[in-house]
């Protein structure tokens, strides 16, 4: 059980949490900043900002090789961050955690290293219709390189979840790998990745979970899920940009070849040959993102301090509140699981308004100091082909949002209706 | 940003139709927000005799396309080619900022490409 799950159950005092996030006491367009775009990137607490600043101010040095105090300290803090992340997601050890820049790079690493070695001409690669571009394009590229076939699990009739029949049917093709998102950044849908992984394993497929939208918002235990790979981004979980991770089961990572060569990833180098370093370092060529690891470490401490179960419960509550209010507005359509299925829904609400384009909606929110996102949310196949719209508006919540923020969004929707003279 | 005039043009656009006898047309889209539009032109004596558009998008992109159909009429091909974001801002009477200027200028860029193709008699 991860540390996050251990922490006791309590309600989150959002007014206290807000104080930890300096940006939330700033203004946007002369109004209090209401940040409702955490699915794109989260804000950072002062604890994370200070950890990074403190590293540069007091122990900045390159890691691994220095035989002096501050280099040892930097090495220790950096390595400790991997231990912490391993524990946070339920991995066995830091050796299963490869640091990369973000979820996108993590998935690409899996496709380039594992995929290159294991996917052959005519093989099937299975993904789903609710994936982010970062879990589509690397597989398209792999399929093109290898002459493999890329298949998709379809959505169900109301386009709120994966269609179980479609999943079964696609798995009958015995795909080499199934890559699926844990939580959708558009629909908010939380997939039952444990059950999906079991089904895929029964068919001999390796399973990669895109955890970009789950890891920041709920307890994650990769060993309980049983997945082979798990990808995540630090910047969506209170950490800095430029740090993310690919979790991989030890045996899989051990059998994989690195995609970059250079310093740090080797044990020894001769004029013609080299030997690789131990896991996970063999995948991390060159000087690491040291500040990223240290910042992520502080972010995990912060999340653990609140408790991932508490975070999840808080987000469900705020999301349900917002959905109740938005649900009563004429001409407003929400996507994803409905209010009776909060157990399979994250804190993301995508919506359309009849008579107002999402870009205009976001602009009117912006005028009121409210940050939301409008567009295809890097999920063009889902938004355009499945939902059948060019773009949607998206509200997303995190630990620093409360019902007042939801109310601000609901009021802004009222303003949109006034500006566009909607009934 | 959303002055009455913009909303009025958005809700009741001028010259929003497919021109069947156009001399040239150009379709463009804004990949960031999914605004899509096709511009049609009829040219006579090197002047825009008529411009129309079709498309789907935000109020800024649609209203500015609609206004542009009126502004472009009678302008020479050379004049059209010289137009820039500043002219669009003057036309819509608001500076929409660095991101949404792309919505506002989508129609001008499409018009300029249509004009270019007309001048050089080629399509890409
Ligand atoms: C579901 C999902 N997967 C992957 C990503 C990509 O994350 P990153 O841009 O940090 O690589 C995102 C980010 O929006 C996402 O929401």
Q: What features would you highlight for this structure?
A:
heterodimer, A: 423 residues, alpha/beta, Aspartate Aminotransferase, domain 1, Aspartate Aminotransferase, domain 2, 2 domains, seven-stranded mixed β-sheet, four-stranded antiparallel β-sheet, 15 helices, 17 strands, globular, disordered N terminus, B: 124 residues, alpha+beta, Sufe protein. Chain: A, 6 helices, binds pyridoxal-5'-phosphate
How is this structure best described in words?
The complex is a heterodimer of chains A (423) and B (124). With 423 residues, chain A is an alpha/beta fold. Chain A folds into two domains: 3-32 and 308-419, Aspartate Aminotransferase, domain 1; 50-304, Aspartate Aminotransferase, domain 2 (3-Layer(aba) Sandwich). Chain A is 40% helix and 16% strand. Chain A contains 15 helices and 17 strands. A seven-stranded mixed sheet of chain A has the order 4-10-9-8-7-5-6, sandwiched between helices. Chain A has a four-stranded antiparallel sheet with strand order 13-14-17-16, with helices on one face. In chain A, α5 (103-118) packs parallel to α6 (137-146) and α12 (308-327) runs parallel beside α15. In chain A, 50% of the residues are buried. Residues 1-6 of chain A have low confidence and may be disordered. With 124 residues, chain B is an alpha+beta fold. Chain B has one domain: Sufe protein. Chain: A, CATH 3.90.1010.10. Chain B is 48% helix and 22% strand. Chain B contains six helices and three strands, in the order αβββααααα. In chain B, β1 and β2 (35-44) form a beta hairpin. In chain B, α1 (4-11) crosses α2 and α2 packs across α5. The longest helix of chain B is centred in the C-terminal third of the chain and has 15 residues, at 106-120. The model of chain B has no long low-confidence stretch (mean pLDDT 92). Residues 39, 102-104, 132, 134-135, 181, 185, 210, 212-213, 233, 378 of chain A line the site of pyridoxal-5'-phosphate.
């Amino acid at each position: 059980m991860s540390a996050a799950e251990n922490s006791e159950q309590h309600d989150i005092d959002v007014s206290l949490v807000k104080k930890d996030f300096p940006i939330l006491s700033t203004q946007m367009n002369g109004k209090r900043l209401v940040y409702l775009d955490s699915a794109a990137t989260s804000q950072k607490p002062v604890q994370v900002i200070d950890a990074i600043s403190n590293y540069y101010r007091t122990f900045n040095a390159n890691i691994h090789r220095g035989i002096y105090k501050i280099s040892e300290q930097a090495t220790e803090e950096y390595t400790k961050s991997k231990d912490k992340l391993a524990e946070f997601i339920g991995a066995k050890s830091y050796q299963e955690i490869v640091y990369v820049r973000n979820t996108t790079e993590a998935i690409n690493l899996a496709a380039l290293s594992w995929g290159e070695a294991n996917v052959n001409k005519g093989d099937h690669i299975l993904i789903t219709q609710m994936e982010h571009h970062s879990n589509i394009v690397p597989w398209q590229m792999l399929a093109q390189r290898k002459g493999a076939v890329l298949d998709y699990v379809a959505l169900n009739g109301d386009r709120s979840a994966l269609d179980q029949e479609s999943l079964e049917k696609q798995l009958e093709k015995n795909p080499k790998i199934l890559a699926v998102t844990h939580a959708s950044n558009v629909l908010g849908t939380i997939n039952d990745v444990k059950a999906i992984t079991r089904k895929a394993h029964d068919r001999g497929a390796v399973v990669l979970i895109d955890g970009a939208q789950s890891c920041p918002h709920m307890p994650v235990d990769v060993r309980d899920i049983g997945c082979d790979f798990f990808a995540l981004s630090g910047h969506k979980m209170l950490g800095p940009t430029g740090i993310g991770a690919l979790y991989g089961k030890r045996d899989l990572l051990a059998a994989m070849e690195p995609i970059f060569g250079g310093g740090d990833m080797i044990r020894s180098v001769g004029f013609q040959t080299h030997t690789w370093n131990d896991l996970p370092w063999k995948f991390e060529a060159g000087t690491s993102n040291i500040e990223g690891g240290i910042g992520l470490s502080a972010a995990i401490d912060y999340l653990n301090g609140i408790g991932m179960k508490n975070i999840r419960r808080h987000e469900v509550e705020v999301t349900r509140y917002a959905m109740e209010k938005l649900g009563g507005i004429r001409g407003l359509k929400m996507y994803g699981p409905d209010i009776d299925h909060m157990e399979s829904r994250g804190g993301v609400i995508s919506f359309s308004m009849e008579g107002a384009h999402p870009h205009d909606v976001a602009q009117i929110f912006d005028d009121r100091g409210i940050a939301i996102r409008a567009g295809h949310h890097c999920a063009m196949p889902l938004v355009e082909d499945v939902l059948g719209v060019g773009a949607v508006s998206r509200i997303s919540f995190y630990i620093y949002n409360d019902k007042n923020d939801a109310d601000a969004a609901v009021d802004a929707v009222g303003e949109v209706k006034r500006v566009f003279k909607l009934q | 940003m959303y002055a009455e005039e913009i909303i009025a043009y958005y809700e009741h656009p001028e010259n929003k139709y497919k021109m069947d006898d156009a001399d040239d047309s150009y379709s463009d889209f804004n990949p960031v927000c999914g605004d899509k539009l096709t511009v049609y032109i009829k040219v006579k004596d090197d002047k825009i005799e008529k411009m129309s558009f079709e498309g789907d998008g935000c109020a800024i992109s649609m209203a500015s396309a609609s206004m542009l159909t009126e502004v472009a009429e009678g302008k020479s091909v050379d004049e059209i080619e010289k137009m820039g974001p500043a002219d669009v801002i003057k036309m819509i009477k608001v500076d929409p900022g660095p991101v949404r200027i792309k919505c506002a200028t989508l129609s001008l860029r499409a018009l300029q490409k249509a004009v270019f193709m007309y001048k050089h008699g080629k399509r890409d």
